[in-house]
UniProtKB/TrEMBL annotation:
<dbReference type="Pfam" id="PF05930">
    <property type="entry name" value="Phage_AlpA"/>
</dbReference>
<dbReference type="InterPro" id="IPR010260">
    <property type="entry name" value="AlpA"/>
</dbReference>
<protein>
    <recommendedName>
        <fullName>Transcriptional regulator</fullName>
    </recommendedName>
</protein>
């Protein structure tokens, strides 16, 4: 399992940190993992699955 930093997440998902936070709050994006008092990350496989789902949705339309 690999954890993505904010910087690595931004390279994969071209959304602003604020938009990602809104999606997380709405349950539409994988939740962050609290790694320490000032450090969060995202599980890479969950983010890749989220991206794959959007790509599959695109192909169906």
């Amino acid at each position: 399992m690999r954890i993505l930093s904010k910087r690595q997440l931004k390279e994969l998902v071209l959304y602003s940190p604020q938009h990602i936070a809104r999606l997380e709050k709405a349950g539409q994006f994988p939740k962050r993992v609290n790694l320490g008092p000032n450090w969060v990350g995202w599980v890479e496989d969950e983010v890749l699955d989220w991206l794959k789902e959007r790509m599959e949705r695109r192909e169906r339309t």
